Amino acid sequence: MNITESFDAIVVGAGPAGTAAATALTQHGHRVVVLEREKFPRYHIGESLIPFTYPALERLGMIPRLRASAFPKKYSVQFVSPSGKASQPFYFFDRYDRETVAQTWQVLRSEFDQMLVDNAREKGVDVREQVEVIELLQEGGRHVGVRARLQDGSIREFRAPITVDATGREAMAATRKAWRRPDPLLRKVAVWTYYEGAVRDPGIDAGATTVAFIPNKGWFWYIPQHQGRISVGVVADGKYLTRDGIKDPATIFHREVKENVWIQEHLAPGKSCGDYWLTAEYTFRSLHCATDGLVLVGDAAGFLDPVFSSGLMLALKSGVMAADAIHEALLAGDMSAARFETFAQVMHQGVENMRKLVYAFYDENVSFRTVARSYPEAVGDLTDCLSGDVNKDFSRMFTALSQFTTVPESLPYGMPAPPGSASAPDAPVAIPAPPDGAPLPGSGGYTHVRLDGAPA
Questions:
Q1: Do residues 173 and 180 lie in contact, with contact meaning Cβ atoms separated by under 8 Å?
Q2: Are 31 and 156 part of one and the same domain?
Q3: Are residues 224 and 338 in the same domain?
Q4: What is the pTM of this model?
Q5: How many domains in the chain?
Q6: Quick check: 319 and 16 in contact, CB under 8 A?
Q7: Is residue 18 assigned to a domain?
Q8: Are 18 and 11 spatial neighbours (Cβ–Cβ below 8 Å)?
Q9: 169-188: per-residue pLDDT in tens?
């Protein structure tokens, strides 16, 4: 027997973008269901909140939860040369209000994402776990819901005027519609693990993010977490990391530790307490962010290189902004792609501003210290962009950067699809899964693999 349930909105995926969209829609008074394939809590990488996650978290009612949590408070970021020389910490409260935007957190994603799910449920969202969406439903040239497989194997349809794709790097809609586009210059590889007993800086710097450089514009992240753990990983071009034919993630990681004195000294008293994870060529964008009856948020719309920890900010912001656009669309009774033009433009501007700064970071001719010294009038812009205040005119900053590097043109991705495109059939294939032997429950798209792509 076919069972169908109806809602005002369906959200596929219970990560930060999905729960943000669902919670904000419920705050507007709409009936929302979230369909999540996995059982929470689940593992996910991406643990650092930058300052301008604050507005979205405040909107969702999450700030009291975070202040009561055990997550380390993050007040600053510092940069470390391969020789081990650390910059002065960049303190957010030198520019922003110390009690709000300038104090953020280093989170354990399994706990943070569970907090977002719990908050959504308390706000009235119907969150259903272990429900796998297997098909996007279309009728009359528009999306009208999804078909899903429940935990007991039964099939159920969920209908709504709007469906929100928040499936993370799996990018359900972008993959099925052939909308995925790689970034031409950000095809990086990341290898990471977790440590216990590694060194933490004292006092207010105990929760700081450290970006530690290695040769060829590669870098380590070093992110303190609670319960004595450190998240630590290395990012660089694949050709550099696989030099001399080395492809084992653990071997790569420990070889690169020796390339930065600060990282080597900070990890020396600790020990690895987890697996070694790898992901390759992870930066991508979706050609479109919406079509009739469907909108993409968070990593499902695109993922940017993580050097400036922008992922969670963009996910939360896109979820809340999409919810506001959906609310207006529901009131107007118009779920066409064109309703999301303003949402698309704002997100495109923010992502492009951050992307251009990421490009500059990877250019061997660019040093932010040198840029700041030569163009002090651009320092405020640089600070704002790095902190996630990305929707403003940064022409002054990009003019300064252009003296050291070529600032790329904006990529033509992320706008709503043209009229009628929703009626085009999706590719008649199942949503892709990791290769046999590689799936990791809760991995959010990350898998244990060798760099040649074979299962580990």
A1: no
A2: yes
A3: no
A4: 0.92
A5: 3
A6: yes
A7: yes
A8: yes
A9: 999 999 999 999 998 788 89
Last residue in a domain, options 259, 280, 301: 280
Nearest CA to 163 out of 298, 292, 34, 295 is that of: 295
Per DSSP, 86 falls in state: B
- Name beta bridge partners: 232: 193, 222
Residue 166 lies in a domain: yes
Q: Is residue 103 part of a domain?
A: no
Are 20 and 149 in the same domain? yes
For residue 41, whether the previous peptide bond is cis, meaning omega lies within 30 degrees of 0, is: yes
pLDDT tens track of the chain, all 456 residues? 578 999 999 999 999 999 999 999 999 999 999 999 999 999 999 999 999 999 999 999 999 999 999 999 999 999 999 999 988 889 999 999 999 999 999 999 999 999 999 999 999 999 999 999 999 999 999 999 999 999 999 999 999 999 999 999 999 999 999 999 998 788 899 999 999 999 999 999 999 999 999 988 899 999 999 999 999 999 999 999 999 999 999 999 999 999 999 999 999 999 999 899 998 877 999 999 999 999 999 999 999 999 999 999 999 999 999 999 999 999 999 999 999 999 999 999 999 999 999 999 999 899 888 999 999 999 999 999 999 999 999 999 999 999 999 999 999 999 999 987 765 556 543 333 333 323 222 333 333 333 333 332
Q: Do 119 and 59 form a contact (C-beta atoms < 8 A)?
A: no
Give the phi and the psi of residue 390 in degrees, each rounded to 5: -95, -5
User: What is 151-198 written as a DSSP string?
Assistant: TTS-EEEEE-SEEEE--GGG-HHHHHTT-EEE-TT--EEEEEEEEES-
Q: In what order do the strands lie in the sheet with 180-182?
A: 180-182, 284-286, 302-303
AA identity, residue 381:
D
Evaluate whether residue 454 is within a structural domain: no
In tens, the pLDDT along 316-344 reads: 999 999 999 999 999 999 999 999 999 99
Residues 363 and 236 in one domain: no
Please report, for residues 35, 169, 282, 293, the alpha-carbon distance to residue 427 in angstroms, rounded to integers and kept in the order given.
Answer: 22, 18, 22, 18
Tell me, yes or no, whether 139 and 222 share the same domain: no
Q: Are residues 257 and 116 in the same domain?
A: no
Q: Choose the final residue of a domain: 223, 245, 280.
A: 280
CB 162 within 8 A of CB 327: no
CATH of the domain at 292: 3.50.50.60
267 lies in the same domain as 301: no
Kindly write down the DSSP assignment for every residue of 31-43, as one continuous string.
-EEEEESS-SS--
Asked if 206 and 230 sit in the same domain, the reply is: yes
Question: Domain range spanning residue 7?
Answer: 3-71+109-182+283-350+412-423
